[in-house]
Amino acid sequence: MTTPIALTIAGSDSSGGAGIQADLKTFAALGVYGASAITALTAQNTQGVSGIHLVPPEFLRAQIDAVFSDLSVGAVKIGMVAELASIEAIATVLKQWSPRHVVLDPVMVATSGDRLLAADAIQALRKTLIPRASLITPNLPEAAALLDAPLASSEADIESQGRRLLALGCPAVLIKGGHGQGSESIDYLVRASGTIALNAARIATQNTHGTGCSLSSAIAAELAKGVELEAAVRSAKAFVSGAIAAADRFTVGQGHGPIHHFHRFY
User: Fold this and answer.
1) Best label site of 67, 125, 198, 262, fewest CB within 10 Å?
2) What is the mean pLDDT of residues 109-113?
3) Taking residues 241-255, what's their average pLDDT?
4) C-alpha distances in angstroms, 190 versus 66, 147, 165, 171, 246?
5) What is the chain's alpha carbon radius of gyration, rounded to the nearest angstrom?
6) Average pLDDT value over all residues in the chain
């Protein structure tokens, strides 16, 4: 029996709710073996980010090479990349190893509002990493930032921005609706063949730390198991919705607490 393996390339969250820690918890909860390459250390808790220490690009590349040279990686999730040199290092390694599935979560701002991606890195993200991704998973503000466009305010605007993001070279875009309004949180999966709206009830909780990280890593986990993209996205959304719904079982921190990755187990 082949063990499904996923690799997360992302920043570390010292409070354990987002980043590498959220990704590895998600992989484990979904029955996938998780490997990791850390792009940055953050001094972070549920109230915000107080410091970022970048991992040198050559050591980031060494981590990724070490994983690919030994493990049979079924899917890669990319989260916080922080700087231009890190993006270039990741792109070089992806070109070398050519993983079948790459889920890129263009993390620019933390749940707390702290900016996590340097402005000069956004262009490199567009030109260097997005064309190497199988799927990108921006939220509404990130989609607007990637396109230098206003925040989408209607379904037509969201679909239009999704198609503009496809033009950057990736075959699929999932625009997340968590920052929208209304009783439902609607994500839009945009591909050349059409757009699918994925609905879920909007859950009233402030414990949403790591939601985006967990969704992208859940998709990567399903892809690593051999699940087709649309089914992987639907399964991942159901998993994260359950984790948000169970988040208030925890009392962790004084700000935006973590979601409950292991809600199916305890």
Assistant:
1) 262
2) 59
3) 88
4) 34, 15, 9, 9, 29
5) 17
6) 91
Of 17, 74, 180, 212, the catalytic one is 212
Q: Identify which has the larger pLDDT, 37 or 248.
A: 37
Task: Answer for the pair 67, 73: CB distance below 8 angstroms, yes or no.
Answer: yes
Token pair for 80: 């916080």
**Catalytic residue of the set 19, 170, 213, 242:** 213
Q: Does domain 5-249 have CATH number 3.40.1190.20?
A: yes
Which of 78, 74, 79 is closest to 97 using CA atoms? 74
**Catalytic option among 16, 19, 210, 242:** 210
- pLDDT of 134: 97
| pTM above threshold 0.90 | yes
By the 10 Å C-beta count (0-12 exposed, 13-18 middle, 19+ buried), 150 is classed as exposed
CA 264 – CA 245 distance, rounded (Å): 11
CB 36 within 8 A of CB 7: yes
Q: Where are the domains of the chain?
A: 5-249
The pairing of strands 102-104 and 135-136 is parallel
Kind and range of the H or E run holding 190: strand 184-191
Verify whether residue 208 is a known catalytic residue: yes
Q: Which two tokens stand for residue 23?
A: 């990704």
Asked about 170 being catalytic, the answer comes back as no
Q: If pLDDT is split at 50, 70 and 90, which confidence band does 1 have?
A: confident
User: H or E element: which one contains 102?
Assistant: strand 102-104
